[in-house]
């Protein structure tokens, strides 16, 4: 699973990655953890992402992202 918080130009501000083996990574402008890093170019639209059958993009709320972000930070601190 990949979660990205985007700015108005679709650049990633924060990212959380959840891997099948239970590992989590995260990144923002100041830090990278668990192999995660912010994208080097703007993120495509949900329509563009959905055109690739391996992806099922879903827009989530800010509150949902904050919950995932907090979980990633806690997971890193516990590890």
Summed up:
This protein has helices spanning 46-50, 62-78, and strands spanning 2-6, 12-18, 24-28, 32-33.
Report on this model:
With 79 residues, the chain is an alpha+beta fold. The chain has one domain. 28% of the residues lie in helices and 24% in strands. It is built from two helices and four strands. It has helices spanning 46-50, 62-78; strands at residues 2-6, 12-18, 24-28, 32-33. A four-stranded antiparallel sheet has the order 1-2-3-4, with helices on one face. The model has no long low-confidence stretch (mean pLDDT 95).
Low-confidence stretches: none
Count of beta strands = 4
Mean pLDDT level: 95
For the largest sheet, list the strands in their spatial order: 1-2-3-4
How many domains is the backbone divided into?
Answer: 1
Helix content: 25-40%
Main pleated sheet: 4 strands, antiparallel
Element order, helices and strands?
EEEEHH
Assign an overall shape. Answer: globular
Radius of gyration: 13 Å
Span between termini: 19 Å
Helical region count?
2
Q: Assess the beta-strand content as a share of residues.
A: 15-25%
Structural class: alpha+beta
